[in-house]
Amino acid sequence: MILTASASDAGKRLDVFLQEQLSQYSRSRLQEWVKGGRVRVNGAAGRASLRLRGAEKVEVEPAELPPLRAVAEDLPLQILYQDQDVIAVDKPAGMVVHAGAGHQSGTLVNALLHHFGALSKAGGEERPGVVHRLDRYTSGVILVARNDAAHRSLAAQFASRQVEKVYLALVHGALPRDEGRIEKPISRDPVRRVRMTARRAEGRQAITEWKVLQRFKGFTLVEVRIKTGRTHQIRVHLASIGHPVAGDRLYGAPARVEGRPPLERCFLHAHRIRFLRPATGESLTLESPLPEELRVWMAGLEPAG
Question: Is 166-270 in CATH node 3.30.2350.10?
């Protein structure tokens, strides 16, 4: 792979530049490649601490990645619902849904395989049962398919926007209206590859609707409904209108709020989901209550006057 540093990269360490440009790989893997001489800057082996000046040609020779295969692990799970086709789990913040670069264990899929054994293989061996995902630091209800037929049914419902997903989010600032709709395409940020952006004309269509539930001094609690399922959609869209989700430092939320303890996660929770049971076509609505750590943090806020 050949990367080119731009003027905006001047002064960055080589390892930071690589993390931004190759976010699909873990930090430790990139560091291994640097140490192993697999990263060259203008033809010479690079050091992780090398400061870029801009305009350098960075060549990366990836080492072969080991195949990913999900294995069972004895991890706690909060089950909201289960039948012969579907499992609904209340995912905690901090848990990754499935294995990937930098996350080979401790995932939701690892736990599901221990508790339930075989799951749908329609999504591949490394993602058994996974029909949709939640960000690592987003909590709440997530559906898992137990067999391939159920997987196909749920996937079709998501694709046709039959599934209703409702989130709760606490955002910075006072939203000017009591409800609104955001329609901005979402694409990968060309500068910071770990982020998505809604500032470019190109990208995939994304629709987010929000409604104010409660106002506090400096914050607003909103109910959010998404009509599409883009990566980081709610976080990107709310940040794009100047109201980042509390705790979401990647999209502009401050690291600390005066007078409040640090929030070590995004204040974003998948509260409710409605779908059709694959076997019967019956409409089913499942809810996950707001986690205690979020309720406690919000309880310390002063209501708006």
Answer: yes
